[in-house]
Amino acid sequence: MKTVNVGNIKIGGNQPLALLAGPCVLEGFERSLKIGKAIKEITQRLGIPYVFKASFDKANRSSYSSFRGPGIT
Q1: Three-state SS for 39?
Q2: 3-class DSSP state of 51
Q3: SS3 for 22?
Q4: Under a CB-based contact definition with an 8 Å cutoff, are residues 48 and 11 in contact?
Q5: Contact 48, 18 (CB under 8 A)
């Protein structure tokens, strides 16, 4: 399996587990920062590499009127 570098984190191949996580869609800077910091604290304590991931435009919503992202109507 191919190894991919995300910053200083190696993913794939024989690398240890890494977590890519964050909110489904960005709902504002402060909320995203709070979520990212909380996950980072947990993963650092557990020794798991962490990459923050969130969508700016979540176009695959089941309802046309659902929130898709900041500034998108």
Answers
A1: helix
A2: strand
A3: coil
A4: no
A5: yes
Cα distances (Å, whole numbers) of residue 14 to 2, 46, 63: 9, 19, 40
Distance in angstroms (rounded) separating the CA atoms of residues 7 and 61: 30
The first and second tokens of residue 19, run together, are: 């977590």
Q: Which residues pair with 3 in a beta bridge?
A: 12
CA separation for the pair 51, 20 (Å, rounded): 5
Tokens representing 52 are 């923050």
19-34: pLDDT as tens digits: 999 988 888 889 999 9
Q: Which two tokens stand for residue 18?
A: 């890494």
Which residues, 6 or more positions from 55, have their beta carbon under 8 angstroms from its beta carbon? 24, 25, 26, 69
